[in-house]
Specification:
Elements: E1 7-24, E2 27-29, H1 32-41, E3 53-55, E4 62-65, E5 69-71, E6 74-90, E7 93-110, E8 120-121, E9 131-141, E10 144-153, E11 156-157, E12 180-181, E13 184-194, E14 199-206, E15 228-235
Length: 237
């Protein structure tokens, strides 16, 4: 039998990075919702967003909009990234823990070069969570390896929902429905078997618990196929 008393050695490492970035005169692509929102929210209709919206000259009705790259006054972000790796042996069995996380303190766009007080906060909107993390535990023994990994995203506003329009209870002020996707956990498992120096068998299951994409998304934060099984062989000559 083997146990904690048979631990041979351990290897660990912890890395932390604090970043604070400001980009002056940034050039940025904007989506259709941002074009409409920034046109309406700007102090004056004399801005670079309203001309991208087309209207019927007779009825004034909306007919379309043009998505282009625009000059922003500034973009800024700040936060902390950290990663941890810890590995140890128990007899002939090896274990490795990998973990990483990210906390974003701010993520702001200043879309109007003529008005530096006009701020469009992006933190907490779709694909921009305040917190995110990933952890993976790997066991290996005589050419066989097994890895369980979990990815976590903090809650995010759904597409077309501006984070500044979300109330403290998580509801969008313009709708009685919840404007946020709850925090998300995605679990995967992978295995490998190195038969010899030339052949290796691998496989696994992605999205084990069949998490679905957000209601406003086609393939985020997971693939629309749901739980996915795969198996393959690598050959080296």
């Amino acid at each position: 039998p083997w146990g904690l008393t048979e631990q041979r050695h351990s290897r660990s490492g912890l890395h932390r990075i604090y970043y604070n970035i400001q980009i002056e005169d940034a050039i940025n692509a904007v989506n259709d919702q941002d074009i409409v929102d920034n046109c309406v929210d700007a102090a004056s209709i004399d801005n670079q967003f309203c001309p991208l919206i087309s209207r019927n000259p007779n009825t004034g009705g909306f007919t379309g909009l043009q998505q282009v790259l625009l000059n922003f006054a500034r973009q800024e972000t700040a936060g902390v990234e950290a990663s941890l790796r810890y590995s140890f042996d128990l007899g002939e069995h090896g274990f490795t823990l990998n973990a990483s996380g990210n906390w974003v303190d701010k993520l702001n766009d200043f879309p109007d070069p003529g008005d530096l007080t006009f701020i469009d906060p992006e933190l907490g909107e779709i694909q921009r969570p305040e917190f995110a993390a990933r952890g993976a535990l790997t066991w290996d023994w005589k050419g066989v390896s097994l890895t369980w990994s979990t990815t976590w995203f903090d809650r995010m506003a759904l597409r077309a929902v501006e984070i500044e329009d979300v109330g403290p209870d998580g509801s969008a002020t313009f709708s009685p429905e919840n404007g946020l996707a709850s925090d998300t956990f995605i679990h995967d498992i992978a295995f490998g078997w190195k038969a010899n120096d030339k052949f290796e068998v691998y496989g696994g299951v992605n999205n084990i618990f069949d998490h679905k994409p957000f209601i406003t998304e086609q393939a985020y934060p997971v693939s629309p196929v749901g739980t996915f099984f795969y198996l393959g062989v690598r050959a080296n000559y």
